[in-house]
Design a protein that fits this description.
Two copies of one chain form a homodimer. With 271 residues, the first copy, chain A, is an alpha/beta fold. Helices cover 45% and strands 15% of the residues of chain A. Chain A has two domains: 2-101, 3-Layer(aba) Sandwich (Rossmann fold), CATH 3.40.50; 118-264, no CATH class. Chain A is built from ten helices and eight strands. In chain A, strand 5, helix 6 and strand 6 form a beta-alpha-beta unit. The longest helix of chain A has 18 residues, at 43-60.
Chain lengths: 271, 271
């Protein structure tokens, strides 16, 4: 069974898509064709969106579902003219919160996303630059690092650091364990003063060999034996040094990031 | 007025935080202290979360608000014991969707986030590696690029490319306009075959001079005159070449990304 979903928003549509995705994945056995219609913030765009949804209805013969975060009720009314099932994301929460907070909501279009706070923007950009300049052991002054991810090459350190920067404005450095570290089973001296900010990443050997093989086909670096040895040594080192560790094999970047922030006690807002 | 908000989830809490943030920013004049309690997936963790929320209630004397995406109703019941206002994110949507889709939802805990699809993970990692290796004109073979962002140094290209990679698995390269390009008002020959994938970024001169001054204090590169000249030339070049352009000064990375995807007609799911 297939159903067509439109995420319609007066902003980026990210909120609509996030909640829609979370809700729809709770329904098994249905394939969803999903489309984003962002920046629907005037009559003309609302009518264009309505036409697109109506056309999909006519073509598939099945009522589309609109996951809607448009704040202006007159635009929502235009969208409803498409005949789609309208799911209004904000509506159910506004009443109880107005009551609890004792104040009516304001109806600023685009307020939810797209509102730029320079301090926030600066934090994200600075943290991104930090991640790039402290990636893969390039810069080794960790004084400003809020966390330092440690692991063998291709264990997931770089994407996690970039995600931390873009989403939480957290300055995350990463340190790739060298053969020397792995043989000695010891962290390099310059990491030791930062022990409470260290977090280990590991990965299954089978998966690591695939990832490395894609990167450097036929290399010794990519062999299963080499991957197994490095990971076993890294695990010993993590245990000896008492570092918290996360296996990245079956874990999304979002989940890894969330676990590290919890473990290190870093309370930051998501952007 | 201050209110304490807890985002409680059996997964990362990202859905709870996204919807909560969107709804709460619609209420003016209230400061929210927000806390994440992720991975609440058993009784023990639910009781610990309940205690933390109850303690906050006792300390502040004001009822906390829980934005809840925990799927298991028995855990939600434990949380409700804290006395907080419970806002269940999924509840309002499940009924109408069960009716429309003709099937009950399944109650897989952690399904919404954290579920890892290798193909998805691979796409994100590959796109991130692509962005890093095609950043700042480093690699100049654009055959695989789904988009190429063009602009002067520090106009917002790199964070946008990384965001595209991490969120949409889109391979985005970026090309920093050189003095030579800006003097000749011409795109380099190697970009021309990819014209339908080019997108220009610009920024206000005042803002650019600040950003560059942070990076290279006292340099000619950071002077307002230099920034003004580069931006004016870049604007002429974008117009002459007919490129779509976005000013990044007052626009969040999310919004920039969403606009570029729309303009280039790239329909990708968010991860």
């Amino acid at each position: 069974m297939r159903r067509t979903i439109f995420y319609v928003s007066d902003g980026t549509g990210i909120t609509a898509e996030t909640i829609g995705h979370s809700v729809l994945t709770q329904f098994d056995g249905i394939d969803f064709d999903t489309f984003r219609i962002p920046f629907v913030d005037d009559d003309v765009k609302a009518r264009a969106a309505c036409l697109r949804i109506k056309t999909s209805y006519a073509q598939t013969g099945v009522r589309p579902i609109v996951i809607n975060t448009v704040v202006d009720p007159s635009l929502t009314e235009i969208l409803a003219g498409s005949g789609a099932l309208m799911v209004d994301v904000f509506a159910p929460f506004i009443g109880p919160l107005e009551l609890e907070l004792g104040t009516p909501r304001s109806r600023h279009v685009n307020k939810a996303h797209g509102l730029v706070n320079f301090a926030e923007y600066e934090a994200r950009i600075n943290a991104t630059n930090y991640a790039l300049s402290h990636d893969d052991g390039v810069a080794t002054n960790y004084a400003d690092a809020e966390m330092i991810l440690v692991g063998v090459s291709r264990s997931g350190k770089t994407p996690t650091c970039l995600y931390m920067a873009l989403h939480y404005g957290v300055k995350a450095a990463n340190y790739p364990l060298t053969d020397d570290d792995l043989e000695k089973l010891e962290l390099p001296a310059r990491l030791k003063p930062h022990r409470n900010r260290l977090y280990g990443l590991t990965i299954d050997a089978q998966r690591l060999t695939q990832v490395r093989e894609n990167r450097r086909p036929g290399s010794r670096y990519a062999t299963l034996d080499q991957c197994r040895w490095e990971l076993a040594q890294a695990d010993k080192l993590f245990r000896r040094e008492g570092l918290p560790v996360q296996n990245t094999t079956h874990t999304s970047i979002e989940e890894i990031a969330s676990k590290i922030l919890s473990a290190l006690g870093i309370e930051k807002h998501m952007f």
